[in-house]
Design a protein that fits this description.
Elements: H1 3-15, H2 18-25, H3 29-43, E1 48-51, E2 54-57, H4 59-83, E3 93-98, H5 100-117, E4 122-127, H6 133-139, E5 144-147, E6 157-163, E7 165-170, H7 182-187, E8 189-193, H8 199-208, E9 217-219, H9 225-231, E10 235-240, H10 241-250, E11 253-257, E12 265-271, H11 278-293
Helix pairs in contact: 1-2, 1-3, 1-4, 2-3, 5-11
């Protein structure tokens, strides 16, 4: 079977679009349609059926896709070994999806690692959209994604870090002087970050205890929390302990352990589906993974400026 037909099939399957597949393959849409027609005749199956603006795979297409993609990946890796990939010479751009927290904590380490070996490479950090990630990774909208949220679709990934949570509050809060009980935790006034990917884990952990909390305040960014907590003696926040520990060195904030079991949140690195330029993707995937795994995260950048005239407290 013609390998070019397999490339067209895999591109249409991953993108769900003849137009997007053509752009990925640097050919015209009629060329994609013609190749798809040949493959339909060879396999005696429609392979894809139009559903609105999306090409939906048939059961036959879903069955053969994993084998076709693996075959192409093997061929492309063999060609990469022959032609070679030199990060020092490439000028391509990579797009990495990260949350606000990930960008603050990990982007500096990632950029240092990339630029040390590939000074001509460009890196675009894309604001995280967890709901869109499966489509982004399938269509090649982003090359990598750093997220603690599981991404459906069978994408290759690696675990990077385990992220635990603690309870942060003003040093003047009535609960600041001793470990917080479950009853006090539930009855306290909470502030939460709406985009925090750990919120479902928190809700599940409380649900197992038959407890529910409703935040009195919800904010968009972690950077809003230090001043809110330091300036309000009634609020507490459940946040990643790496961040909270940094706040406690700069702001009049205390961090206490959670009064219940909450599994750590695993931060993972996902890579896009592809059968082309696999050596380049292998390199950026490995480079980013090692950069994050070898770093404690530069979360001091999220601490902000302390309130003037207030003493500093350490948890």
């Amino acid at each position: 079977m013609d390998l070019n037909l397999l490339r067209v099939f895999v591109a249409v399957y991953e993108t769900g679009s003849l137009t997007t597949a053509a752009r990925r393959l640097f050919v015209t849409q009629p060329a994609v349609s013609q190749a798809l027609g040949r493959l339909r005749r060879e396999l005696d199956d429609p392979l894809f059926e139009r559903d609105g603006r999306t090409m939906r795979p048939t059961p036959v297409a879903s069955t053969v896709f994993p084998a076709f993609r693996e075959a192409l990946s093997g061929v492309d890796r063999a060609l990469d070994e022959i032609h070679g990939f030199d990060p020092a010479l490439t000028d391509r751009r990579f797009r990495i999806a990260m949350s606000e927290l990930g960008e603050i904590g990990w982007a500096p380490s990632i950029l240092r690692a990339v630029r040390a070996r590939a000074p001509r490479v460009g890196v675009d950090v894309v604001a995280m959209d967890v709901q869109a990630l499966p489509e982004w990774l399938s269509r090649g909208t982003v090359d990598l994604a750093v997220t603690p949220s599981p991404v459906p679709g069978g994408f290759d990934h690696v675990a990077l870090k385990s992220q635990s949570y603690g309870v942060a509050m003003s040093a003047d809060h009535p609960l600041a002087m001793a470990p917080v009980s479950l009853a006090d935790y539930v009855s306290a006034e909470h502030v939460a970050v709406g985009s925090d990917s750990g919120l479902p884990n928190l809700a599940a952990a409380l649900g197992r205890l038959g407890a529910v909390i409703t935040p009195q305040v919800t904010v968009n960014h972690f950077t809003s929390l230090p001043s809110l907590l330091a300036g309000d003696r009634g609020l507490i926040a459940t946040v990643p302990d790496t961040i909270a520990a940094g706040w406690a060195t700069t702001w009049p904030i205390v961090v206490q352990p959670l009064p219940f079991e909450m599994p750590a949140v695993d931060v993972r690195l996902y890579r896009r589906a592809t059968t082309q330029q696999t050596a380049a993707l292998d390199w950026i995937f490995t480079t980013v993974a090692r950069a994050i795994q070898g770093s404690t995260g530069q979360f001091f950048a999220i601490h902000g400026d302390p309130i003037v005239g207030r003493p500093h407290h350490r948890a």
